[in-house]
From TrEMBL:
<feature type="binding site">
    <location>
        <begin position="62"/>
        <end position="65"/>
    </location>
    <ligand>
        <name>GTP</name>
    </ligand>
</feature>
<dbReference type="GO" id="GO:0005524">
    <property type="term" value="F:ATP binding"/>
</dbReference>
<dbReference type="Pfam" id="PF03668">
    <property type="entry name" value="RapZ-like_N"/>
</dbReference>
<dbReference type="InterPro" id="IPR027417">
    <property type="entry name" value="P-loop_NTPase"/>
</dbReference>
<feature type="binding site">
    <location>
        <begin position="11"/>
        <end position="18"/>
    </location>
    <ligand>
        <name>ATP</name>
    </ligand>
</feature>
<keyword id="KW-0342">GTP-binding</keyword>
<protein>
    <submittedName>
        <fullName>Uncharacterized protein</fullName>
    </submittedName>
</protein>
<dbReference type="GO" id="GO:0005525">
    <property type="term" value="F:GTP binding"/>
</dbReference>
<dbReference type="InterPro" id="IPR053931">
    <property type="entry name" value="RapZ_C"/>
</dbReference>
<keyword id="KW-0067">ATP-binding</keyword>
<keyword id="KW-0547">Nucleotide-binding</keyword>
<feature type="domain" description="RapZ C-terminal">
    <location>
        <begin position="169"/>
        <end position="288"/>
    </location>
</feature>
<dbReference type="InterPro" id="IPR053930">
    <property type="entry name" value="RapZ-like_N"/>
</dbReference>
<dbReference type="Pfam" id="PF22740">
    <property type="entry name" value="PapZ_C"/>
</dbReference>
<feature type="domain" description="RapZ-like N-terminal">
    <location>
        <begin position="4"/>
        <end position="160"/>
    </location>
</feature>
<dbReference type="InterPro" id="IPR005337">
    <property type="entry name" value="RapZ-like"/>
</dbReference>
Length: 291
């Protein structure tokens, strides 16, 4: 069993925890906001029973939990005993003046304002209550001067997994030009120059999913040369798109009718990318037309 990564997001109210949880969601984390600390262990058990479907989790746990929050460190100590769970504490903070200004702009009530009345007094009390937790944090980020974009870059650099394969989903679609091109493809490739099985009587009723068609297309020297150059290009492009922050890439491959050549190459490219551990979804849009 692979270990599950937990990030406990906590810190000062108004320091950016709401934005942080949205960023973690974009990074592929399973996110829960305002989880009572007493439920951490139970939630961890459920994640361990997910058969790997949940492998990275971000939880916002803060002063809104009231009396439950006071036992956060005690509940986290239970995770230390879990063999297949690693956790980090991310603490977000900001200066008093910044927090006061943010509360004035949003006109929201500080969680401790009912106890203290004035915003500044509530902030000081919260800072005192969080002192021990801040001291045990693995990462402290001061957002006083940070924009949302800067916070996103900071979190990505610290918590995004290194593997490129986890950062992008790839959709492959075969289609026939005579039925129109897919409007949502980021990249479009035309394979109508390849040998066409449509003109072979025994292959015409078959599709690119059939071995006979695949062998007919792939054995030709022009096909082998194209395949090598095409896959090399795709292999180069995907990391470049990831660096630019793209999390979904759609690639369309078309031939005349969308039944033989395009289907064959979508299947070939799918196998190639899956072997590199990318997440791939394939669709043969026009494979059943004119059959």
């Amino acid at each position: 069993m692979k270990k599950i990564k937990f990030v406990i997001i906590t810190g000062m109210s108004g320091a950016g925890k709401t934005e942080a949880i949205r960023i973690f969601e974009d990074l592929g984390f399973f996110c829960v906001d305002n989880l009572p600390p007493v439920l951490i262990s139970k939630f961890a058990e459920l994640c361990l029973q997910s058969d790997g479907k949940i492998n990275k989790v971000a939880l916002v746990i803060d002063i809104r939990g009231g009396d439950f929050f006071d036992n956060l460190l005690g509940e986290l100590s239970k995770l230390d005993k879990e063999k297949f769970i690693d956790y980090e504490i991310l603490f977000l903070e900001a200066g008093n003046d910044t927090l006061i200004q943010r509360y004035k702009e949003t006109r929201r009530l500080h969680p401790l304002a009912k106890e203290e009345g004035r915003i500044l007094d509530a902030i000081k009390l919260e800072r005192k209550k969080l002192g021990a937790l801040r001291g045990q944090a693995d990462k402290v980020i001061d957002t006083s001067e940070s924009s949302i974009k800067e916070l996103k870059e900071e979190l990505k650099s610290n918590f995004a997994r290194v593997e490129l394969t986890d950062k992008i989903n790839i959709s492959l679609i075969s289609f026939g030009f005579k039925y129109g091109m897919p409007a949502d493809s980021d990249l479009m490739f035309d394979v109508r120059f390849l040998p066409n099985p449509h003109y072979v009587d025994s292959l015409r009723p078959l599709t690119g999913n059939d071995k006979q068609v695949q062998e007919y297309i792939l054995k030709r020297p022009i096909t082998r040369e194209f395949r090598e150059k095409f896959f090399d290009l795709i292999n180069f492009l995907i990391p470049q798109y990831i660096k630019e922050g793209k999390n979904h890439l759609s690639i369309g491959i078309g031939c005349t009718g969308g039944k033989h050549r395009s289907v064959t190459f979508v299947n070939e490219l799918s196998d190639f990318l899956e072997n590199k551990q990318y997440h791939v979804i394939t669709e043969h849009r026009d494979i059943d037309k004119d059959r």
